[in-house]
Amino acid sequence: MSKALSTNRMDEQMSEANCSTSSATQASHQPWVSSDQAEVHFILERASRFFSLLAEPARLRILQAVCDKECSVQEIVGQTSLPQPNVSRHLSLLFNAGVLSRRREGTFVFYKVADPLVTQLCRTVCVHLATSALAEPPVV
Predict the structure, then answer these.
(1) 57, 109, 126, 133: which is closest to 100 by C-alpha?
(2) What span, in angstroms and rounded, lies between the C-alpha atoms of 112 and 104?
(3) Which of 14, 59, 89, 119 has the fewest Cβ atoms nearer than 10 Å?
(4) Which of 84, 38, 36 is nearest to 62 (CA)?
């Protein structure tokens, strides 16, 4: 990855972090917003970012691969059939968001779900969609 591309991604992440902090700060400094409302706004913004993180099908495929066991990057690539650079990028985003944890063993990096609630949430939604009228039949 080029240094400029890496710097651009870091700038985007820092900008995102600053936006989330500044919006929470703005809400708490607005006299018409109570501290309880500011806290609710902050939590809803965090929830929105969390759900937008899960809105990418490739990330859901990665979560499915690691939902029950720790997997190496190579195992995740094999289970998801996604290109390795894409898997690495999504793993990085999920790790930085605290959804996944990782450990190194020699040259291998292993990932697992950091919070079992994430797995439970994804499974609940998938089961609901599969068994409800919301589920669309597969396109053949």
Answers:
(1) 109
(2) 12
(3) 14
(4) 84
What does the pLDDT read at residue 138? 64
pLDDT value, residue 102: 97
User: Distance (Å, rounded) from C-alpha 111 to C-alpha 65?
Assistant: 10
Please report the pLDDT score of residue 134 as a whole number: 59
Contacts of 68 (CB under 8 A, 6+ apart): 119
Q: Tokens 């899960």 — which residue?
A: 54
Candidates 41, 80, 63, 59; CA nearest to 123 is 63
Q: What share of the chain is helix, strand, coil (3-state, %, to 5)?
A: 65, 10, 25
pLDDT of 133 reads 63
Q: Of 51, 44, 46, whose CA–CA distance to 122 is shortest?
A: 51
Structure-token match 């009228």, residue found: 133
Mean pLDDT of 42-70: 94
Which amino acid is present at 119? Answer: T
